[in-house]
Queue: 2 jobs
Job 1
Amino acid sequence: MSSGYTTEPTTLVWTQTAGMPVSSLTDPALEDVRDLLDTGFEHGEMITLVGRCAIDYDGRASSHLPPGERLVICKPDGTLLVHRDEQRKPVNWQPPGSTHSVCLDDDRLIVESVRSSPHEELEITFKTVAQASRLELDDMSELALEGSEEDLRQRILADPDILETGFNAMATERETSAGPIDIYGQDADGTPIAVELKRRRVGPDAVGQLNRYVEALERNRPGKSVRGILVAPSVTERATELLASEGLEFVSLTPEQADTS
Amino acid sequence: MSSGYTTEPTTLVWTQTAGMPVSSLTDPALEDVRDLLDTGFEHGEMITLVGRCAIDYDGRASSHLPPGERLVICKPDGTLLVHRDEQRKPVNWQPPGSTHSVCLDDDRLIVESVRSSPHEELEITFKTVAQASRLELDDMSELALEGSEEDLRQRILADPDILETGFNAMATERETSAGPIDIYGQDADGTPIAVELKRRRVGPDAVGQLNRYVEALERNRPGKSVRGILVAPSVTERATELLASEGLEFVSLTPEQADTS
DNA sequence: GATTGGATCTCGGGC
DNA sequence: GCCCGAGGTCCAATC
């Protein structure tokens, strides 16, 4: 059962798994691929295509990709992905909410995906398809993720002294004319503090962000000084210089409690 | 040939396409999936798995995803993607350069992917696999994309007057202590100008970025005024306020020549 | 719908 | 390797 592979140059293979619906065609005629896509789109199934195709995109930008062999994924929520054999990002795609369609044009299979607001079109032209599959995926679980900026915030709110002895957190997402401050509070002397949180090492952009908030607070309270503290695991050299030139401060903290075993 | 599907509850299907190597197992024993993965990893092929699995990730952050049916893609460059039936982004992944391995543990198939620098681990535990495929994708084409910030830069360099009459572009990526300026130049009066380009509508972050560059230039030339111009198709209200409060300017331009047909 | 900023962002270029 | 900013960023939360 485990070792005896049988090599079959099949031109049309249809299989239906009992537990997890997977219907697949191997080396199919484009006509059959069209039917599979129509059925899959109608039933709200996920579809994977492997084949040689060219791709044209027009929308927020525009692109052209000459023919090559790729993996195409159409999700029931309107997502479309085109993956090459390298890179984490799809070479082309459509976001969720797009509408997929398929048509046969002479000896080419054309998969089209259209989105509105903004209007975007993706056209995939297949010359050959090596594999086409319909997948009905049942997945109700939710991802539990730790180590986000939100975890860093909770860590500070649970024990404000880890930021600075006597720190008093008074608000989160406190609004300013420049945007919301992650944590707004006061130091032991009652001086206002704007705290900007980052879950990882920060560069100049985070300093600019904190500076905008501090300046917005100072504009509202002329004459009264406001401290700005950037909280992150670490900071780059250029960001350190910017912090100094703006009179801002840095405190090193990670989202996760350090392992003190 | 087109309509006569045959329904076969196949437990082991192996097909080898001539033109485009695609080897696939449908509803296989986990032992066979392990062999397919080992072979695929060794030959540098792309692999797709469809099945019910749980996923644990630990690295820059950490996450746990309870069992569910998903599509897993392993690329020969070390990329690993786990896709659910919705969303454009994979629910879990490993970046290119990771090392994949597989092992059979009792009645579970475990696919592991490890990366170093930073160290990250991804572990996928399959209870059942509905489909496993090896793909050898031949794709030498390169994506041609239009409408990038680089196109906007070229547009201005080709005709500086579209930014402002008499503008003189003197350098691109001109270095400052706060980072490189997209275009550095002078106006008709000889006043220095820092130009920050964005291919799409901009918010407060772009204003902060431009402001950092302008302040860096002014720090180098005390007393001498420096203009800052943000170039983008449009700008949000809050960004407009920030521009005003910082004494910066805005010019509306898109990466693409407007259609004047 | 527009806005805003986080993200295991990814990715490329420069040093 | 780190740093830095672009991206068809995607995405959720908020207004």
Job 2
Amino acid sequence: MLDIKFIREDAETVKKALARRGADAAQIGSVVEADKKRRAIIQEVEGLKAENNRASSEIAKMKKEGRDASGAIAGMKAVTDKIKALDSELSSIEARVNETLLGLPNIPHGSVPDGADDKSNKLILEWGEKPSFSFKPLPHWEIGEKLDILDNDRAAKITGARFTVYKGAGALLERALINFMLDIQTREHGYTEVAPPVLVNRASMTGTGQLPKFEDDSFKLAEPDWFLSPTAEVQVTNMHREEIIPAAKLPIYYAAYTPCFRKEAGAHGKDTKGIIRMHQFNKVELVKFVLPETSFDELEKLLKNAEEILKRLNLHYRVMLLCAGDTGFASAKTYDIEAWQAGAEAYREVSSCSNFTDFQARRASIKYRGADNKPVFLHTLNGSGLATSRLLPAILEAYQTKDMEVIVPEVLRPYMGGIDRITKK
RNA sequence: GGAGAGAUGCCCGAGCGGUUUAAGGGGCACGCCUGGAAAGCGUGUGUGCUGAAAGGUACCGAGGGUUCGAAUCCCUCUCUCUCCGCCA
């Protein structure tokens, strides 16, 4: 959420920034108007309330002294009615202002390039090399089927399209990846592991920015008013919702493994094979709560922490800086890490690392106590570290052999009972 | 799922329609005292909104209602605890 005070004082800057990402800047004018009205009503109604309070204690005193207060009481009725009317007008204006603010995206950082879509994203770095093969490498869905480790057909029987069953060495590999990633992030990069609920309430979804705009993208329970979390960002960021954290405790780093659930409503016919785009997938998420002045440095560190996983797995990848138009709703700056899928011959996003500045902190009311003891919104960041549904395909494709086996990357072997390859059973 | 109890400031805890602009205690901060400390004494100690400021206003789990006036009465909801049932 953007700060209404900032919008009020510098509407032009906000309009320009929103235009960069293709957001509707016309709402800025009307929200500034509504805010002006809001403040005028506050001044009026609070004056009446002050008068009301004075009269009330006067009445109390008269009653105590045994005098007749009926005249004073009768006089208060009109003031109270006026207060009620103004209060209800005020709350409808506040609701309108709030609704508009909740619908406005974050302002892209100055270092974010212009552009409308992913074609304008900027290549930041490439690491490693595409593996070369003496044969035609297969896409992961064919490998998964031949080795009998991924079974989308049976998942469809259980649930429907866009689910998979990990089987045998596939299930083991999935579990190994999760443990490997968590161990690196917690033991070497200083993150504290958390294992949160996967069902989340409306306030949490609003706090991180999934709601109100993107309700249709989420799986929602009929009862109660809960959602299947689309990313652990929601749970972990909202752990500190409505809290004031002592500055000395910052920065806070969390790593969480959770299943994630997405409707993929706009993706009909896209990525229908394999496990690239599932309704349910596993992800280790990294979340940071930091001092505002450090957040862009923290973003660079977060990116490095996520990259480390790919380096240890020796997988070729590139890092893209997203342009203004491709940057997510809540983010001020986002890097995507794209791993090379050797069989499908494409780069696929395995991680997205974002600095949300104070956008989520303001929605969720997460503050720290500054030097002058005043509560200040802190900055939140998060990044995948990483998503297994993208990582596991990259591994299968990069490590496949001519004899239809998959070599287990060395760093994963301790997590897989020491086996060095996945073979057909 | 059934029955009951509860939710008050950083913590404990009073409060049962009008000097509560929330008693009292503890903690914490600062000051006095001290060679230094403890004890003691004094002062202070929330958040939001509004306002240039002084100040004003709202908030006693959340949301409604009754009343001139609600922490206090009524309704709905959420959460916690105890017992019963069911259960990994």
